[in-house]
Amino acid sequence: MTPIALGIPSRGSDSGQAAEPASPAAQLLPDMISRHGLVCGATGTGKTVTLRVLVEQMSARDIPVFVTDVKGDLSGLAAAGGDSKKVAERLPLFGLGADHYRALSLHLWGRDGIPLRTTPTEMGPELLAQTLGLNDNQTGLLHLMFKIADELGLLLLDWKDLEALINFADTARRQLADDYGSISSASLGAIKRKFLALERAGVDTLFGEPALDLNDLLKGDAVHLLDASAMDHRAYATLALWLLAELYEQLPEAGGELKLAVFFDEAHLLFDDMPAALLDEVEQVVRLIRSRGVGIFFVTQNPLDIPEPILAQLGNRVQHALRAYTPKEQRTVGAVAKSFRENPELDTAATIGKLGVGEALVSCLDENAVPQPVQRVLIPPPASRLSPLSEAEKRTLKKGPLADKYCTELDRESAYEYLRARREKLLDETSPGRSGQKARKSDSNLVQSLNKAAISFGKQFGRELARGILGALGLRRR
Ligand SMILES: Nc1ncnc2c1ncn2[C@@H]1O[C@H](COP(=O)(O)OP(=O)(O)OP(=O)(O)O)[C@@H](O)[C@H]1O
Ligand SMILES: [Mg+2]
Q1: Distance CA 41, CA 39 (A)
Q2: What letters, b where the CB count within 10 A reaches 16 and e where it falls short, cover 7-38?
Q3: Which numbered atom of ligand 1 lies nearest the CA of 53?
Q4: Domains of the chain by range and CATH?
């Protein structure tokens, strides 16, 4: 596979560019994509355009790509360029003409596209607790809820299943205490309130069926773009981590073959107030996911937004301009400069502050996975349109086999339906009158009847479900 061109030599925006189109100075080797990458730079310096250029070139090589769009400025990937003066000015420097403009074939996921869903069971209590922003106590309680659901054979497929489970636990608190220890009503109340807040932020729509089948992302026929622009930040972070964990757990060993490149824009959101234990696990996933043929590219303003153990694993780097006015900024620039392999012809630290828009310091891995000396380059012009798609344009993308598969929501019988039906039945048996007392009585009977059901299934549900490595480490249970 031909290398991905990341730019031509640049002598700086003030000195003008070569009159003759120059040959590439920095290249990303497709074989090194699974060594991960980083695109950084202050706001407006060209990070998202660089991401775009990488995605376009990967797509041209039939490499499957999944991209998150946090600011809503990437849907234009599905349209041909020609809308930007700055891009047009750059074409001749690269020996390119207007025929460079090209639309990508795009699968649009998310709000205006194909729904991307997972189930609470797949996500597991730990990541869910992250999404909800639960404290340690509440997180412990959520784990307990999952255990109860597991043991009572309650399927958790969507948001209302989770709500039903928590409401059930609340009313049947006393009966459950025999088997599970005391359950704090106050903590349950706090969890419920967080549920409601997230529901208002639209997070409930991320849960349900049909859940995403990862194999649908592994085809090089089109770029997968997840519109996360309207998504709650915490939910975005959780979804991203879930995707990484899921890719790691579900994909077989790739034997060196590249299966998928994943781009996370605004990547600092992934790591905002991440508990240390979770960070350890994410670090492991990032380390190990390479064996599954997955390369991850983080795009963020400040490289120090990415925790050091993860940063250290990002082999391919594109650094756009950083400001270096305050002492803190100067320290960042110093640290970034040190992270590059030196180039004797370049004063890395001094250059970082002087880079123009769409200009960057680049160092990628060579064929032996050794970082190449840092180069100052002008990033190529993107082929796709910078302005986002209109609503009408988005609608035209929402068809085809993936839309057919995911657009109609499924609602299988799961915890919500099951609990409701059982409760109705028991209430009828304990009628007349549906007073609170009767309801509690019925919930007590419900616990018993569910227990019996679990036993009669040979404790089939009582067994802890199989866990992947993350589950074993406590991140999640499946
Ligand atoms: N390689 C490039 N070729 C031509 N123009 C570019 C290039 N890179 C950046 N630009 C110009 O700079 C603008 C800002 O770039 P971009 O949106 O990528 O910045 P950013 O670093 O992602 O900003 P933010 O932090 O706000 O997301 C683009 O809209 C485009 O006009
Ligand atoms: Mg951007």
Answers
A1: 7
A2: bbebeeeeeebeeeebebbbbbbbebbbbbbb
A3: 1
A4: 4-116+209-406 (3.40.50.300), 147-201+414-472 (no CATH)
User: 123 CB under 6 A from ligand 1?
Assistant: no
| CB-CB contact of 1 with 30 (8 Å) | yes
pLDDT value of position 279? 87
470 pLDDT more than 60 = no
Is any atom of ligand 1 closer than 6 Å to the C-beta of 46? yes
Q: How far is the CA of 34 from the centre of ligand 2 (A)?
A: 23
- Tell me the CA–centroid distance for residue 136 and ligand 1, in Å: 41
Complete edge-to-edge strand list for the sheet that includes strand 359-363: 26-28, 4-9, 375-378, 359-363, 316-319, 37-40, 294-300, 260-264, 65-69, 223-227, 106-110
Ligand nearest to the CA of 386: 1
Distance CA 63, CA 221 (A): 8
- The number of the ligand 1 atom at minimal distance from the alpha carbon of 386 is 29
> Which ligand does the CA of 52 lie closest to?
1
Query: Could you tell me if 288 and 248 are in contact, meaning their C-beta atoms sit under 8 angstroms apart?
Result: yes
Token pair recorded at residue 151: 């043991």
Q: Is the pLDDT of residue 462 over 90?
A: no
In this prediction, residue 460 carries a pLDDT of: 38
- Give the position, in ligand 1's atom list, of the atom nearest the Cα of 43: 25
Mean pLDDT of the chain: 87
Q: Residue 359 forms beta bridges with which residues?
A: 378
Kindly tell me if the per-residue pLDDT of 175 is higher than 90: no
Q: Which residues surround ligand 2, an ion (CB under 5 A)?
A: 47-48
pLDDT at 308: 93
The residue whose CA is least distant from atom 2 of ligand 1 is 358
CA 68 to centroid of ligand 2, rounded, Å: 11
404-448 per-position pLDDT tens digit:
999 999 888 899 998 888 878 777 776 665 556 666 666 667 777
State the pLDDT at residue 438: 63
Task: Look at residue 404 and give its three-state secondary structure.
Answer: helix
340, 371 contact by CB (below 8 A):
yes
Structure-model confidence comparison of residues 68 and 457, the more confident one: 68
Average of pLDDT values for 324-352?
93
Cβ–ligand 1 distance for 385 under 6 Å, the answer: no
**Distance (Å, rounded) from C-alpha 311 to C-alpha 268?**
12
Over residues 366-397, the pLDDT tens digits come to: 999 999 999 999 999 999 999 999 999 999 99
